[in-house]
Amino acid sequence: xxxxxxxxxxxxALLVLASSAPAPAQxxxxxxxxxxxxxxxxxxxxxxxxxxxxxxxxxxxxxxxGSGKAMLDFAVTLSIQNAxxxxxxVLDRIDYFDTAGKLVEKFLASPVALRPFGTVxxxxxxxxxxxxxxxxxxxxxAAAGAIAEPVIETVMxxxxxxxxxxxxxxxxxxxxxxxx
Length: 180
Prior knowledge:
four-stranded antiparallel β-sheet, globular, 9% helix, mainly beta, seven-stranded antiparallel β-sheet
């Protein structure tokens, strides 16, 4: 049996290791979620970004089934498509939130520009249940002048037994309503 001082040292070592791990909302720099889409990206426009938007996209990473007690987990793909034939679309924010509205992960460390008609995706695996039933993304975009509104949506996919499930959720512009 190890002496008590050895047990205390082991616990302290585990606590130090746990406290030095990156926060869940940070992605290591080497793990670029847009790396597979390098050919969809272009250089940032030199002109001022005068047209900006913010889009809310529901992303159901889990849904209740049957009596409401069982959960079915879903893989989620966020797709961001530049609908402009001529102008780059700048993405300055791709954030993932959970059911309680808590930030789960930031996917962009700095702005990127999407080529005309280009697409990028963010994938959240089926076993990543951090988002829960009310998960969502917020995507910030900008352009130097007039541009076609981007197409931003999520596709959810799952399987259980012999059945497979899939559905799409479209993003909605975040706009203030009511008197200001």
